[in-house]
Amino acid sequence: MKFATEVSAGPGFSVPEGRDSGTRKATVSVIIPTLNEAGNLPYVLNSVPSWVDEVIVVDGRSTDDTERIAQLMHPGVKIVHELTPGKGAALKAGFRAASGDYLIAIDADGSMDGSRLGDFRDALDHGAEYVKGSRFLPGGGSADITRFRRFGDAGICFLMRLFFGARYSDATYGYFAVRADRVDHLNIDSDGFEVETLVNIRAHRAGLRIAEISCFEGNRIHGASNLSAFKDGFRIARCIVLEKVRGHRGARV
Predict the structure, then answer these.
(1) What pTM did the predictor assign?
(2) CATH topology of domain 3-246
């Protein structure tokens, strides 16, 4: 497993308890936001390794069998109901409900490979506090992204580097992990899809030790995506500008 560290350890940084520390093994919670993903959950939940300690499915607005399928496929799943629309709202609810030392967010559409969860865990074990999946590092890729969306992602990466000095290779991929004791530093206050970019900025500004790991994005298995390249790209750019204007800073570690 290879990962690239973006920033050095900040003040007060310590290696998390895990396999490298010689103490107890860190526990892992996987958070899966859902909205009418009954057709995709069998694949997603089957891809989650058995060593994962807790699986949390955040739902509340689905009109299909999402909740029933989740419980059928993974009897130990924790269902969290969140009626506020948006991925940001679902992530906040999932993080609040999680009990693990490491929290890993994965999409429910089948585009993210659950077998890579171990790479996120390993990066946290080796000292990272926030781990970002990237489709554009060597070894990564995407079967789904268009040239227009790739260009837009590069533009967003440029804005984050220009405004905040954050050097990410992928700005809009939502496969990420964070130590539970660092979640408050992200101060997630967005309900929408732009949360994926916002947490990247907040992690950087809070001085978290950040790593990127290569990932491959597959196609959505069932259903149609609700993403709009132009509309969502505008929302993300607006989010970045507002973050700069507001001068928000997470609690530094």
Answers:
(1) 0.86
(2) Spore Coat Polysaccharide Biosynthesis Protein SpsA; Chain A (3.90.550)
